[in-house]
């Protein structure tokens, strides 16, 4: 893909806009930036359909089985958390759109250790997801085509690797059509369900007898909380729109649109579709691991929907695979720009695509694909479980970053919600604190959950997070020591300059003042070099 400007590939890449509150940036004026060629239609569809995946289309069966109709409460609670977290992220991103998204803001508002640790943790989540989605998609394909499962998994991963290497516009175009298919499918399901419930279309069953099914909360309020975990994890990924916004033609506008539409996206695609399911299908008829969309339509006497739904689910998996590789590579690119990842991840090709970061991310994804077939229980399951609580960690970091950002933004003269184009978090700081407390409570709930698999997910995620934090602290301390050593060198250089240039007839106080001026001048020069 070429840039929207014909001569873009011939000229030196423009500098990357960097928001400098409380952070050192390791890019220079000559450092390459990413292409800003994602169009509004790309961002709109990524925002609309980006969060629709197998978590809604298939994994929602476990939530419905656990809570029955009460699953709507679970989706409502999870939806509120997502809306609030996206609002916080939108406040920071609208003031300073950044491909590193929340990781960059964590560096600026909490500290380099936080940005590094959550950035690498997020990268780890998405590279593992590459292997998970490629494997899951291959299982659907091999239902219809006789071949070993590793073949389509490998082909799909290599295909999306090539697509992402070509250009960001290629990624956006593919996501545009993937998201379109998902949105049309969910919308048609909702319309069809409404017609069934209104008896416009005849069916074998007319609604659900909730009294015979144990009422609206067949498993009590505990069922609602059991369902909350798979529900809330199925919504993870809404923040990808803010990552992609950094490569759009109008980043600030793209961020505002993604944040302002998240409410009705969740209401329509999640709560709306699940409401249709629980109104059509008794929760006792739900099969865990089988798409409840297929189960609902089959239950009311409409056969042949499993093949159609396989196509929709396959589309969702391919969309997630594509987005996983994109998101992981952009996070690696951002980390490298802040000196928190290998500098080579900053390299871009002629289309301003970070090819080294893409290749590195795809390589780990391919390794996870191989491990799934070579050692599925011994290794691959451990990798998958190690990402189980990443969503909560990411949302916590977003909330804490937003909590600390207000004073630093004000110091730069930026007032969220007042300045043109910015978003303001509602009820600050009380609602922000409420979200933080809720997320911590969710981690505590996972700790004491009766399901051992959930506890394993938390513990493994904590191990990976702990390693990331330790690495972040070590890197931050090295940066501080380097800065301190540089200051010592500056002081010595200033003293040498005074000794060489000072007039012996100066009074002592004048000499001291001259020395201070020289030291300050050297410090300013060093700061300029560091910022570049």
UniProtKB/TrEMBL annotation:
Ranges of biased composition (kind: Low complexity): 1-14
GO CC term, one of those recorded: membrane
Membrane topology, record value: Multi-pass membrane protein
Positions of region (Disordered): 1-32
Pfam family, one: AA_permease
InterPro entries: AA-permease/SLC12A_dom, Amino_acid_permease_CS
Major subcellular location class: membrane
Biological processes annotated in GO: amino acid transport; transmembrane transport
Residue intervals passing through the bilayer: 43-64, 70-89, 109-127, 147-166, 178-201, 221-241, 262-281, 311-333, 354-374, 380-400, 428-448, 454-475
Record field: compositional bias (Basic and acidic residues): 23-32
Keyword line: Amino-acid transport, Membrane, Transmembrane, Transmembrane helix, Transport
Domain Amino acid permease/ SLC12A, residue spans: 42-470
Compartments where found: Membrane
UniProt-listed PANTHER family: GABA PERMEASE (PTHR43495), GAMMA-AMINOBUTYRIC ACID PERMEASE (PTHR43495:SF5)
Family, as annotated: Belongs to the amino acid-polyamine-organocation (APC) superfamily. Amino acid transporter (AAT) (TC 2.A.3.1) family.
Protein name: Amino acid permease
Species: Pseudoclavibacter caeni
């Amino acid at each position: 893909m070429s840039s929207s400007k014909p001569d873009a590939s011939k000229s030196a890449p423009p500098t990357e806009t960097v928001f400098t509150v409380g952070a050192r940036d390791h890019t220079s004026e000559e450092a390459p930036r990413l292409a800003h060629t994602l169009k509004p239609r790309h961002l709109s569809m990524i925002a609309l359909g980006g969060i629709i995946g197998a978590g809604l289309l298939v994994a929602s069966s476990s939530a419905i089985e656990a809570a029955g109709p009460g699953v709507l409460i679970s989706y409502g609670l999870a939806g509120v958390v997502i809306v609030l977290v996206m609002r916080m992220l939108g406040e920071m991103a609208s003031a300073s759109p950044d491909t590193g998204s929340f990781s960059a803001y964590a560096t600026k508002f909490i500290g380099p250790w936080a940005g590094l640790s959550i950035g690498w943790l997020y990268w780890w989540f998405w590279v593992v997801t590459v292997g998970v989605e490629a494997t899951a998609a291959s299982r659907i394909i091999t239902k219809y085509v006789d071949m070993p499962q590793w073949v389509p998994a490998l082909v799909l991963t290599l295909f999306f690797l090539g697509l992402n290497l070509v250009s960001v516009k290629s990624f956006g175009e593919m996501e545009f059509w993937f998201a379109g298919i998902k949105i049309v499918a969910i919308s048609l399901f909702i319309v069809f369900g409404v017609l069934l419930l209104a008896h416009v279309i005849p069916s074998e069953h007319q609604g659900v007898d909730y009294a015979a099914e144990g009422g609206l909360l067949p498993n009590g309020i505990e069922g609602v909380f059991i369902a909350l975990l798979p529900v809330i994890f199925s919504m993870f990924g809404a923040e990808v729109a803010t990552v992609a916004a950094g490569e759009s033609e109008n980043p600030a506008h793209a961020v505002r649109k993604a944040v302002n539409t998240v409410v009705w996206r969740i209401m329509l695609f999640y709560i709306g579709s699940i409401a249709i399911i629980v109104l059509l299908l008794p929760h006792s008829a739900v099969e865990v691991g089988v798409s409840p969309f297929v189960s609902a339509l089959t239950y009311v006497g409409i056969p042949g929907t499993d093949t159609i739904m396989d196509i929709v689910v396959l589309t969702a998996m391919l969309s997630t695979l594509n987005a996983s590789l994109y998101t992981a590579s952009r996070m690696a690119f951002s980390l490298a720009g802040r000196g928190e990842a290998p500098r080579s991840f900053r390299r871009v090709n002629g289309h301003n695509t970070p090819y080294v970061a893409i290749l590195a991310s795809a390589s780990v994804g391919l390794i996870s694909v191989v491990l799934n077939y070579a050692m599925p229980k011994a290794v691959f399951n451990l990798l998958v479980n190690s990402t189980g609580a990443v969503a909560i960690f990411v949302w916590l970091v977003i909330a804490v970053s937003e909590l600390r950002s207000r004073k630093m933004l004000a110091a730069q003269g930026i007032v969220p919600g007042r300045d043109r184009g910015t978003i303001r978090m509602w009820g600050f700081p009380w609602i922000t604190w409420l979200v933080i407390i809720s997320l911590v409570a969710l981690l505590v709930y996972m700790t004491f959950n009766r399901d051992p698999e959930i506890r394993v997910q938390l513990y493994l995620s904590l191990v990976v997070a702990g390693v990331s934090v330790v690495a972040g602290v070590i890197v931050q301390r090295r940066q501080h020591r380097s800065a301190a050593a540089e200051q010592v060198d500056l002081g010595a250089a200033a003293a040498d300059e005074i000794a060489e240039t000072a007039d012996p007839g100066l009074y002592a106080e004048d000499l001291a003042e001259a020395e201070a001026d020289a030291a300050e001048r050297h410090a300013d020069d060093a700061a300029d070099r560091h910022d570049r």
